[in-house]
Each structure stands twice: as structure tokens, then as C-alpha cells.
Amino acid sequence: MLRAPQSQFLRPEDRAICQRVVDQIAADAKWYSTSIDGQILASTTLTLFQSGVVNETNLLAHVRARRHDFTNLTD
Predict the structure, then answer these.
(1) Are 43 and 66 in contact (CB under 8 A)?
(2) Cβ neighbours of residue 17 under 8 Å, at least 6 residues apart?
(3) Domain ranges, ordered by start, for the chain
(4) Whole-model pTM over 0.85
(5) Are 35 and 71 in contact (CB under 8 A)?
(6) DSSP symbol at 71
(7) Kind plus residue range of the DSSP H or E element containing 36
(8) Residue 16's Cα: distance from chain center in Å?
């Protein structure tokens, strides 16, 4: 039976980092009156984390830099 390498799975503490980043971006969106595509936000966060951006502060900065990918201004 084939198994995926263990490194493909996030540990609970890794998931917690990603969740805090997503939560912070969602809070930012409320502050700036934007709407979020949650699936793209989550995908962006996980992709960056799995690409090696594992420090929470750096991850948040990288996700914020890509916010145009998952936010829209609301009027």
C-alpha cells in the first residue's frame, strides 16, 4: 500500500500557526471593509507554509503581500 510521506502533513502546531494567520487576515478584512475568498486565502497560506515560510510573522507578511489574490473591496 502506498503512503504519502509524513512531511506532507501539518502538525497541530503548524495548523495553529496557519489558522492564526488566516484569522488575522480575516480581522484585517473587516477593518478595511473587504470581502475574502476563504478558500483562496487558506490555499495561499498553506502553500506559503509548505514552501518554507514557517515563521508566523513572516507568513503573515507574505500572505498580506498577496491579499489582492483573495480580497475585494466592498462599497
Answers:
(1) no
(2) 49, 54, 56, 59
(3) 17-73
(4) no
(5) yes
(6) E
(7) strand 34-36
(8) 11
